[in-house]
Amino acid sequence: MRADPEAIERFGTRAALIAALSLPVLVILSRSAAEAVFAALAIGFLLRLWRRRESAALRAPWFLAACAYWAWLVLATLAASADVERVLVALAWGRFPLVMLALSSWLLVSEEARRWALRISGTAALAVAVETWAQFLFGRGLTGTGRAVPGYLSGPFRRPRVGGFLLLVMWPALFAAVARLRRAGAGGVVAAALLIAVALGAVLLGGQRVPAAGALVVLLLGAWLLPALRLPVAVGLVPVLAMAAAAPVLAPEAFARYAQEFPRLLLGFAESHYGLILARALAIFAASPWVGHGAEAFRHLCRDPAFFRGWGGAGEGGGAAICVTHPHNHYLEALTDGGVIGLLLFAFFQGLFALAILRGALAAPRDAVRIGLVLPLLLGLWPLQTASAFAGIESAAPRCLLAGWALAAAAAARPPATSSA
Q1: What one-character DSSP code corresponds to residue 270?
Q2: d(CA 211, CA 269)
Q3: Residue 45: which residues within 8 A CB-CB, separation 6 or more?
Q4: Is the Cα dihedral 233, 238, 244, 247 positive or negative?
Q5: pLDDT by residue (tens digit) across 1-25?
Q6: pTM
Q7: Domain region containing 25
Q8: Domain total in the chain
């Protein structure tokens, strides 16, 4: 008996959708499992296009721009005479736009699939927030997790990831839930305000400064764009402000990071760890300004004494002691990896992606889910901020899921083409 190709494809699509929607959960449970699923989605999507002889999806402007940067990254890595491992890293970079395209043109094209994405991402965000609050209140999470890193609440993660994860994942479900509760009268407003306080409080308790600031920006912009959010946000900020006022007593470590360390960081940025990382990245860039040094340039060149220079070329810029695996900024990463040309191509890709998702938001300006998708993604494109490595799976997996989801929602919002007689 011959297998039915259509039945096989339906099964494959369901399996791929389940795998894609599991990404917010997998990055909590197992980084290696998330990497495996991500690679399988990219390869499976290419095989599907090849079997169906389809190429229309590959002509999306943002995807072509991503492929241009991808090709340049591979060429820059080869030109740098990098080892085989780095060449493979450059080749593997393409899995990110491929998964975004798979989600937007295949897996999340139906409203039902997007509803499941909302449910699962919301559940994952709620679990992380509850675990973080449990660590704060009881010293250990509900799953037995403790504080993995002193000075932070790590939730279910092994490193400080709570703020970054929630900043990406929680908004579609949070905005949708608040908008729905707002219609339930005074009790609904109180419930919505409590939900906002719990979510925002979890981000603040995580101790990560950039996600905390980003969460406040997204929340206030969401309230500005969505009238249904304004009263719950105003009420929900009251307990958050009260918690901030009591932070010196209730959460002294978090208070120190926000109120004491952050001002010192801004005033002495040049000599801070982030300032020294920036100086090191610029020294690496200056050695090959147009082509760059190939994939993971910062990781491999940071410890080279040839780049031990501080601001103005003075001193050793912190030596090898400051070295980390990436320069903490996506655009700086593109600059060291691909030079000026790589930076321009990467920025072009990001700009076209922003235009694509904005189209969906403008087509439905009162849609809480779409606003909850677009705002954190656009905030992530802001160049003057610290960020995880672009290819770091803990942030890349939820980011690509939301990006593909936002692109699919934008395509669904597009008015159908009308044929002229």
Answers
A1: G
A2: 19
A3: 16, 98, 99, 101, 102, 106
A4: negative
A5: 456 777 888 898 999 999 999 999 9
A6: 0.94
A7: 5-264+328-413
A8: 1
